[in-house]
Design goal:
The chain is mainly β. Helix content is 0%, strand content 49%.
Length: 126
């Protein structure tokens, strides 16, 4: 019933920027609880940024000040703006969605999201 689809990944050099997009056809993303997660080999899947249906945002400490999660309500697109990218940001980035409200403490936890995109590869070279 709900399928997030990501795009915008690619290969860049350290300090450069990239913007990822996520769409969920048939749904208004601003009314959902949305998150960006990244899959790193040997480390598992970790929460990067999230925005709740009330507009509240959460960020992993390592990306604060560099990444920004936003929504274009007119175009119904969720974005992850990634600035000053570092090699350690290299991962497969997934968009996740859920209709359920959770306390903000759970925003970056994998298990609170039901619907997941297939991921988009981000590679940052030094």
């Amino acid at each position: 019933q709900m399928q997030p689809v990501e795009s915008g990944g690619g290969s860049v050099q350290a300090s450069e920027s990239l913007r990822l997009s996520c769409v969920v056809s048939g749904h208004t993303v601003s009314r959902l609880n949305m998150g960006w997660f990244r899959q790193i080999p040997g480390k598992g899947r970790e929460g990067v940024a999230a925005i709740d249906s009330d507009g509240s945002t959460s960020y992993q400490a390592s990306v604060k000040g560099r990444f920004s999660i936003t929504q274009d309500k007119t175009k119904n697109i969720l974005y992850l703006q990634m600035n000053n990218l570092k090699p350690e940001d290299t991962a497969v980035y997934h968009c996740a969605a859920d209709q359920r409200r959770y306390p903000n403490d759970y925003a970056l936890m994998t298990y609170r999201y039901t619907y997941w995109g297939q991921g988009t590869q981000v590679t940052v070279s030094s």
